[in-house]
Design a protein that fits this description.
Pfam families: MreB_Mbl (PF06723)
Helix content: 25-40%
Low-confidence stretches: 328-334
Number of domains: 3
Largest sheet: 5 strands, mixed
Family: Belongs to the FtsA/MreB family.
Keywords: ATP-binding, Cell shape, Cytoplasm, Nucleotide-binding
Shape: flat
Number of strands: 18
CATH superfamily of the largest domain: ATPase, nucleotide binding domain
Structural class: alpha+beta
Subunit structure: Forms polymers.
Distance between the termini: 28 Å
Protein name: Cell shape-determining protein MreB
CATH class of the largest domain: Alpha Beta
CATH topology of the largest domain: Nucleotidyltransferase, domain 5
Radius of gyration: 20 Å
Length: about 325
């Protein structure tokens, strides 16, 4: 088989790979487990994620992406190589073309780092596209018409908000508050309130099962286990949705404010379109209970959660790959 086109959603929390003609072929956590002394990679993705918080002292599970950008270049490259080998991207006669997504406000240096990592992992041509634009396309928006579309993409490391028209971003904002921050708020709340230490995975479970951002929107309880900070022994506590609501209020208010700021900078004609069409939320954060209702209330426009919000960016890369030859792309020269 000759060159294949590959779309990569290189997220802070997860990496998704879309191969043209096949759809999404990989969806794994962006985690690398390394041996401390030799710096040797022990495991990548799902296997490494299972090790988070459960490894002996000489093995550490790290996330090479932070806030949507590369925090650890070598391990990002190793992770990409591993995933591309896993989906058989290298068994082709010619190297694949890769379309990769990044947050809206990253610097040209950070863009170059992403492209370099993709090229070193075995690509012929690397194209970069902004995440909210790709998320909007993947959510089914027709952003190539002369009308306003607004998307709020709440990922792991960043929340990207954009108003799009004629295939381009009109106004946008990217803030470093998203799913990871919610996990930290939950973790810190339980630490402060109950003097109990829990791991990131437990915090994430609480976010999915119990958390809500709508007052009184959910009345779930959950037993969680951790280590008592006073006795040092394991302990179980029960937490409720109401408590978690309190702990997330501040973080969520930053996302609401960022969305308001984008709307305030939007030309009036496009604002009128957004009132008619509504706002679409994508990314893992879109699944946080009550998020659509809260944004609807605060922004005074209808807010809808996309179908399969976590797959929107990867699906969007697939649609753009179909038109890769036709649509002019930003290719960053190194």
């Amino acid at each position: 088989m000759f060159g294949r086109d590959i779309g990569i959603d290189l997220g802070t929390a997860n990496v998704l790979i879309h191969i043209k003609g096949q759809g999404i072929v990989l969806d794994e956590p962006a985690v690398v487990a390394i041996e401390k002394d030799s710096k040797q990679v022990m495991a990548v993705g799902e296997e490494a994620f299972r090790m988070v918080g459960r490894t002996p002292g000489n093995i550490v599970a790290i996330r090479p992406m932070k806030d949507g950008v590369i925090a650890d270049f070598d391990h990002t490259e190793a992770m990409l190589k591993h995933f591309l080998t896993k989906v058989n991207a290298k068994s082709m006669i010619s190297k694949p073309r890769i379309l990769i997504c990044c947050p809206t406000n990253i610097t040209s240096v950070e863009q170059k780092a992403i492209i370099e990592a993709a090229e070193k992992s075995g690509s012929k041509n690397v194209f970069i596209e902004e995440e909210p634009k790709v998320a909007a396309i993947g959510a089914g928006m027709d952003i190539f018409q002369p009308s306003g579309n607004m998307v709020v993409d709440i990922g792991g490391g960043t929340t990207d908000i954009a108003v799009l028209s004629m295939g381009s971003i009109v106004t946008a904002s990217s803030i470093k508050i998203a799913g990871d921050q919610f996990d930290h708020e939950i973790l810190n709340y339980i630490k402060k309130q109950y003097k109990l230490l829990i791991g990131e995975r437990t915090a994430e479970m609480v976010k999915k099962e119990v958390a809500t951002v709508a007052p009184g929107g959910r009345e779930n309880d959950m037993d969680i286990r951790g280590r008592d900070m006073v006795s040092g022994l394991p302990r179980t506590i029960t937490i409720s949705s109401g408590e978690i609501y309190e702990s997330l209020t501040e973080s969520v208010s930053h996302i609401v404010q960022a969305a308001k700021n984008v709307l305030e900078r939007t030309p009036p004609e496009l604002s009128a379109d957004i009132i008619d069409r509504g706002v679409i939320i994508t990314g893992g954060g879109a699944l946080l209970h009550g998020m659509d209702g809260l944004l609807t209330e605060e922004l005074k426009v209808p807010v809808i959660t996309a179908e399969e919000p976590m797959h929107c960016v990867a699906n969007g890369t697939g649609i753009l790959l179909e038109n890769l030859d036709r649509i002019s792309k930003k290719k960053v020269k190194i």
